[in-house]
Design brief:
- By secondary structure, the chain is of the alpha/beta class.
- It has a single domain, classed as Nucleotidyltransferase, domain 5.
- Helices cover about 45% and strands about 25% of the residues.
- The protein is built from four helices and five strands; from the N terminus they run βββαβαβαα.
- It has helices at about 35-45, 65-80, 95-105, 110-135, and strands spanning about 5, 10-20, 25-30, 50-55, 85-90.
- Strand 1 and strand 2 form a beta hairpin.
Amino acid sequence: MKILAIDHGEKRTGLAICDPAERMAVALPTHAMTGNDAVELAELAKEQAVELIVVGLPVNMDGTEGPRAKAVRSFAAELEASAEVAVEMWDERLSTAEGDARLRMHGLDRKERAKRKDTAAAIVILETYMENRRKSGDRRP
């Protein structure tokens, strides 16, 4: 199943998509936030023939949700109302740190890492989501 992962940000949103066999997550161009983002990303999901959208939920390390999590939940609700597919929340703890570590491992300097951090986090979100589906045997859309 094709899945779109979203790392929602205030200025930029990272996007990643997987192949129908759910073997590989690849980057999509970063989305600059415009105010009409739920509709625009729902349209992107339709264009890409996505069957599920996974939105990273910024949960605090102690498991609580702060103001950013509430904003992301609100965005996800708008997205689900606009999209023709289900929207699922996914705990994104440490996805940004993992994405940054991967970019560092590839030798990118601070400036280049800053440009790609949102997309790298979206890839991590999607990969952990797909890994969880494989382990649990969950293949529902």
